[in-house]
């Protein structure tokens, strides 16, 4: 996959910081974050899988969101942790492109799964009488197929563009992962076309997703305002609050990094900003959905209750 004239066969990941005194504390901190991410997302996956009451469209998409977050975090964090404990954290050219591909695939897939969840909430609140027909298993599977097709398409566009770059001598990536901006900085043949590919794909993905989410929530808000009872409004807002929180966290941090040129956003600031959507968001998603969702908390209590009962027997 490497460009034919490229003399670089491996890269060195600079990591988050080069200060020796911070390496061990940061390693323990991010190892803790990763463990919380794995336990939280695996727990939510198992909880939804084991409880038949959670076999609904909303939890079908939440199940896939947790699966994406788990894989997404595993693509980035273990290699990042290596930079804290090794003198030189190297990655092969092919390995760098592979990490980039899966990173892009999971990021874009998460974007579209969040838009599918917004559409699901719109149908549930605005068209409750036809919800089971509109969000049938076949429709949910088609939506999920669309999510992953968009993820693969976007990842192939980004990875293909980066694979065409030539790296002449400098192989130090000023980041903790193989991300697009630092790789563009290293390339000898970087051109406007490569930057245009990045901007076009990111803008198209964010544009389609944000438009879908905004239209869905505009219609939801209009429907909620027509509900006369305070309890009904509160319940409707409650089903959407977790999703809105996750959307703002994910798209806010992502847009801040990718929709600004390197001259406006230096790489050092960019890699710190990218911690939000690469580390924080996959860790916080299961916490947000479990702590703010009564059904998830009830399912957790039920599952734990079954385990305690089996132990007593």
Structure notes:
- 76% of the residues lie in helices and 3% in strands.
- It has 11 helices and 3 strands, in the order E-H-H-E-H-H-H-E-H-H-H-H-H-H.
- Strands 2-1-3 form a 3-stranded mixed β-sheet.
- Helix 1 runs antiparallel to helix 2 (57-85) and helix 1 (20-50) runs parallel beside helix 10.
- The longest helix is centred in the middle third of the chain and has 34 residues, at 93-126.
- The radius of gyration is 21 Å and the shape is globular.
Quick take:
The protein is mainly alpha-helical.
SSE topology sketch:
Blueprint: E1 10-13, H1 20-50, H2 57-85, E2 89-92, H3 93-126, H4 131-134, H5 137-163, E3 172-173, H6 180-186, H7 192-225, H8 230-258, H9 267-273, H10 275-291, H11 294-312
Parallel strand pairs: 1-3
Antiparallel strand pairs: 1-2
Search tags:
313 residues, globular, single chain, three-stranded mixed β-sheet, receptor, disordered C terminus
Annotation, overall tally of beta strands:
3
- The coarse overall form would be globular
For the CA atoms, what is the radius of gyration? 21 Å
Which parts are unreliable, with pLDDT below 50 for 5 consecutive residues or more? 308-313
Mean pLDDT: 82
* Major sheet strand order: 2-1-3
User: Secondary-structure element order, as H and E?
Assistant: EHHEHHHEHHHHHH
Question: Span between N and C termini?
Answer: 58 Å
Main sheet summary: 3 strands, mixed
Helical/strand content category: mainly alpha
Strand content: under 5%
Helix content: over 70%
Number of H/I helices: 11
Described by its quaternary structure, the protein is single chain
GO molecular function: G protein-coupled receptor activity; olfactory receptor activity
Domain G-protein coupled receptors family 1 profile: 40-289
Membrane topology: Multi-pass membrane protein
Family: Belongs to the G-protein coupled receptor 1 family.
